Amino acid sequence: MDGVTIVDHPLVQHKLTLIRDKSISTKSFRELLKEIGMLLCYEVTRDLPLAEVVIETPMAKMQSAKIAGKKLVFVPVLRAGVTFVDGMMDLVPTARVAHIGLYREPQTFSAVEYFFKSPSDLSERLAIVVAPVVATANTAVAAIDRLKERGAKEIRLVCLIAAPEGLERVRGLHDDVPVWTAAVDDGLDAQGFILPGLGDAGDRAYGTR
Question: Is the peptide bond before 93 cis (omega within 30 degrees of 0)?
């Protein structure tokens, strides 16, 4: 699908297999989610612009590259998005973090917002929405809508797994938002969960099943 990048790195795919397994502990789920977040961060930031600067090593002066251009803001979708973004923050500790609380209404699957807090300069930052699962994509679309309302002009979406239906919805409504994911699964069941999927990421990350 145009605008969708599937990250097939062996380490990502290995950890994805581990995190899908229903027998792993809550602790292991969180640890893997953080590790995969770090690995996916490499991919979603692969094309950040660089600028040459002059530094001095212990041996000599030299020109070397530093990240230039827009600063980053990570936007985890609560709950499990917070653990997912922790790995990204290990790589980019200077990034800002916006939080958006959204849950899916069980009957209609519509997204319900209960919290939103972001930096005031969203228009000057690259916003990376972090959602472990994109199933119906209602919460992902709602997050992107909210960011655009607040002035965000450049947005990317990162998820662990996605359903084809969800990707089509995101790209259909926001074709200017590219998506990175570790896997595109078969589809959705009657309850709107991804098959084969990994279950409810929030419940598995925090032991609330």
Answer: no
What lies within 8 Å, CB to CB, of 59 at 6+ separation is none
The CATH class of the 4-44+74-206 domain is: alpha beta
Q: Is residue 114 within a helix (H) or strand (E), and if so which, with residue range?
A: strand 111-117
CA distance 170 to 32: 26
Q: Read off the pLDDT of residues 73-124 as tens digits, 9 standing for 90 and up.
A: 999 999 889 999 999 999 999 999 999 998 877 777 788 888 999 999 999 9
Give the residue from 192, 202, 193, 179 showing the smallest Cα distance to 132: 202
Domain boundaries, the chain: 4-44+74-206
Residue 166, token pair as written in the block:
């969800």
Q: DSSP per residue over 80-103, as a string?
A: HHHHHHHHHHHH-TT-EE-EEEEE
Find out whether 188 and 195 touch, Cβ atoms under 8 Å: yes
The whole-angstrom separation of Cα 167 and Cα 150 is 23
Number of other residues whose CB lies within 10 A of the CB of residue 10: 7
